[in-house]
Write a structure and sequence with these properties.
Elements (H helix, E strand, L loop, with lengths): L1 E10 L4 E3 H5 L6 H8 L3 E3 L7 H16 L6 E7 L11 H9 L5 E5 L5 H15 L4 E9 L17 E11 L7 E6 L7 E3 L17 E3 L1 H22 L9 E4 L4 H11 L10 H4 L6 H11 L8 E8 L3 E8 L4
Parallel strand pairs: 4-5, 4-6, 11-12
Antiparallel strand pairs: 1-7, 2-3, 6-7, 8-13, 9-10, 12-13
Helix pairs in contact: 3-4, 6-7
Bound molecules: oxa(dethia)-CoA.
Oxa(dethia)-CoA binds next to helix 2 and helix 6.
């Protein structure tokens, strides 16, 4: 039995903040941000939205595109680093209640910007062993509430939003697919959020209740990590990166994706890019991009695709699929 993506959905809050808007309160410019990141604007949640509400809207859209009713969902996983509550209840439980998914399990998964790929792999394995069951996998973030808006070296990168997929059984065996999950905790200090919930302070970490980023270190790691997982997946499946139709890399910085393309000797056109108008939405970035590509008609059955992400932890991960089979 194989598993496939049955539908996708996304939600971006309507408020748009441009680079020019940021330059009114920060010593920065559209020229600097665009040339260093490829970002022009990002969506920012209004006071009445939070991670669970955006997640529920993206999930609702995914259910509609899949033609699946909330009552058919047996599992909800929300990948997020910005849950509504610091620890509990999970954002996934709030989404369950909002959607009216009466009979299901629900939990959050924290693997930062690689979280969606981690969550998709858990849902794929769960759907494989629970015949006929369907899962909602959601990446959702309200990063605007944790970034330090005084720090021009990090706040210009991030945006809010949510993306979701419905995963369920497919007919027959399906084509080969594979996932790799990796972490390198030695880089934990490269990007972290310090809000009082980390019990054991580490040397080099400072008590600032916001997101802290060592941009250069994360940039260098990201290029190595995205190229490594894409190469590993192709090797495992006996194919080459050149044979891929599309790569959906975490939309962190366009310059990172360009460097990955150069390192892998792939044309940049193979990489889906939408960060110009979304910024970095962490765990939401890959499902938002997938949904946008599907709605534009850019995802055709059988396309060879790699989804790859990296983020705080450090974590990194990738999935090779032949659309829409996982
Ligand atoms: O999901 C994972 C999240 N994290 C990432 O993906 C981050 C990866 N890293 C990056 O994207 C880049 O390192 C940044 C965009 C964060 C920074 O770009 P950079 O090219 O590495 O810049 P930099 O930190 O080396 O700074 C170069 C200069 C500095 O000025 P001086 O010291 O040369 O005078 C900075 O102060 O640019 C300055 N600078 C800015 N100037 C205008 C840094 N940020 C800004 C800014 N506007 N927003």
């Amino acid at each position: 039995m194989s598993v496939r993506i049955l539908g996708t959905g996304s939600y971006l809050p309507p408020k748009i903040v441009t680079n020019d808007d940021l330059s009114k309160s920060l010593d920065t410019s559209d020229e600097w941000i665009w040339s260093h990141t490829g970002i022009r604007s990002r969506h920012i949640a209004e006071a009445d939205d939070c991670t669970s509400t955006m997640a529920a809207k993206a999930a609702q859209a995914a259910l509609e595109s899949a033609g699946v009713a909330p009552a058919e969902i047996g599992l909800i996983i929300v990948a997020t680093s910005t849950p509504d509550y610091a620890t509990f209840p999970s954002t996934a439980c709030l989404v369950q209640a909002a959607l009216g998914c009466s009979e299901c399990g629900a939990y959050d998964l924290q693997a930062a910007c690689a979280g969606f790929v981690y969550a998709l792999e858990q849902a794929r394995c769960w759907a494989k062993v629970n015949k006929g069951a369907k899962a909602l996998v959601i990446g959702a973030e309200t990063l605007s509430r944790i970034v330090d808006w005084r720090d021009r070296g990090s706040c210009i990168l991030f945006g809010d939003g949510a993306g979701a997929v419905v995963v369920g059984e497919a007919e027959g065996e399906g084509p080969a697919a594979h996932t790799v999950l990796w972490a390198d905790g030695k880089g934990a200090s490269f990007i972290y959020r310090d809000g009082g919930t980390r019990l054991k302070p580490q040397p080099g970490m400072f008590p600032i209740p916001t997101l802290v980023l060592q941009g250069h270190d994360v940039f260098a790691f990201a290029v190595r990590a995205l190229a490594k997982v894409t190469n590993q997946l192709c090797e495992k499946l006996g194919t080459t990166p050149a044979a891929l139709d599309r790569v959906f890399a975490h939309q962190a910085n366009g310059r990172i994706i360009e460097a990955v393309a150069r390192r892998m000797k792939l044309p940049i056109e193979k990489f889906y890019l939408n960060l110009e108008t979304t910024g970095n939405t962490s765990a939401a970035s890959i499902p938002i991009a997938l949904d946008e590509a599907r709605r534009k008609g850019e995802l055709k059955d059988g396309m060879k695709i790699v989804l790859c992400g990296f983020g705080a932890g450090l974590t990194y991960a990738g999935t090779y699929l032949q659309w829409p089979h996982l």
